[in-house]
Design a protein that fits this description.
Layout lengths: L4 E4 L1 H5 L9 H13 L4 E6 L12 H7 L7 E5 L3 H9 L4 E7 L2 H8 L3 H18 L3 E6 L3 E2 L3 E2 L2 H14 L3 E6 L6 H12 L7 E5 L6 H10 L4 E4 L19 H11 L7 H15 L6 H16 L1
Parallel strand pairs: 1-2, 1-10, 2-3, 3-4, 4-5, 5-8, 8-9, 9-10
Antiparallel strand pairs: 6-7
The structure holds 3-hydroxy-3-methylglutaryl-coenzyme A and magnesium ion (MG).
Length: about 300
């Protein structure tokens, strides 16, 4: 039986770019609903500089008030030692640090070069280790950078090796702008997995050009077994203008079901969580699967 782990990033990557403040209670309800749906890894918030990303300023509240479900890891995105202190103080089960593949994106997103960002992770990882908390490492812009263009897979591979050497147990490869195509993803995963075990890799696809699911399929064929997604296809990075949301969790589940791959998540419950947050945001889900389920639901209601 082949198992795939979904890493739900909706409450963080999905919401961080929302311009209107979302009440903490709605964020907490979202995290709880996702856990109830069977997701075992949920990125519940970010402990970044609130002046840079105001929407994530209530991380403490969210982590304090969620209902901790046994078997679920609630992760926090952190950029530096200050973020790690804040996240560990409210008992995040996992930290996620984030580097970029290019200096240009790194500067826009974290006000430092890639090398400087890696140096900032050392105290983060030391704090996490002392607390017995695992650390995941993201690499953004693995296919292309909105500021400096095409990215060489060899560059991504070097940063992935650096993150592993620092102590990250898993590296998530982020197509932040969602421009990647299957051939590029194939080449990228090939390059990185030639240097790191494929079971240490995850893929994080945005769907700007509608290629996210196909790209995930390619990564699965290469042996990747951890996939990031966001309920209702929420998301976008404040420093990647024009990038669409993350691939929708509902759509990835439907793909995995079709491939006969185990994931342990209840599609209907995720779709319900997606409907609730979309209602809060006042706009429809971008998930095709959520749309199809809603249409089927309303036509059966009309029939009866
Ligand atoms: P900076 O302004 O250069 O930081 O920001 P600083 O070290 O100079 O500190 C300035 C002030 O901020 C100080 O306060 C610090 O204490 C405070 P003051 O002394 O002036 O009163 N500060 C903090 N406060 C709370 N929490 C913190 C923190 N850090 C500093 N953690 C920094 C540098 C990295 C902090 C900033 O650039 C930042 O927060 N960036 C985060 C941007 C972000 O969240 N981007 C989105 C997430 S990444 C993403 O979406 C991509 C990903 O999803 C993958 C993909 O999609 O492909 C991961
Ligand atoms: Mg992202």
């Amino acid at each position: 039986m082949v198992e795939v782990t979904l890493v739900e990033v909706g409450p963080r990557d999905g919401l961080q770019n929302e311009p209107t403040p979302i009440p903490s209670l709605a964020k907490i309800a979202l995290v709880d609903a996702l856990a109830e749906a069977g997701l075992t890894r949920i990125e519940a918030g970010a402990f970044v500089n609130p002046q840079w990303v105001p929407q994530m300023a209530d991380g403490e509240q969210v982590f304090t008030d969620i209902k901790r479900r046994p078997g679920v890891r609630y992760a926090a995105l952190v950029p530096n030692a200050r973020g790690a202190e804040r996240a560990l103080a409210v008992k995040a089960d996992e930290l996620a640090v984030f580097a970029a593949a290019t200096d240009a994106f790194s500067q826009k997103n974290t006000n430092c070069t890639v090398a400087e960002s890696l140096a900032r992770f050392e105290p983060v990882i030391a704090q996490a280790k002392a607390a017995g908390v695992p650390v995941r490492g993201y690499i953004s812009c693995v296919i292309a950078c909105p500021y400096s263009g095409a990215v060489d897979p060899a560059q991504v591979t070097r940063i992935a090796e650096d993150l592993r050497a620092l102590g990250c147990y898993e590296i998530s490869l982020g197509d932040t702008t969602g421009v990647g195509t299957p051939r590029q993803v194939d080449q990228l995963v090939n390059a990185v997995s030639a240097r790191l075990p494929v079971d240490k890799l995850a893929v994080h696809m945005h769907d700007t050009y509608g290629q996210a699911l196909t790209n995930i399929y390619v990564a699965l064929q290469q042996g990747v077994r951890v996939v990031d997604s966001a309920v209702a296809g929420l998301g976008g990075c404040p420093y990647a203008p024009g990038a669409a949301g993350n691939v929708a969790t509902e759509d990835v589940i439907y793909l995995l079901n079709g491939l006969g791959l185990e994931h342990g998540v209840d599609l209907d419950k995720v779709a319900a969580a997606g409907r609730a947050i979309c209602q809060q945001l006042g706009r429809p889900s971008t998930s095709k699967v959520a749309q199809a389920l809603a249409a089927r639901h309303s036509s059966t209601k009309n029939d009866s």
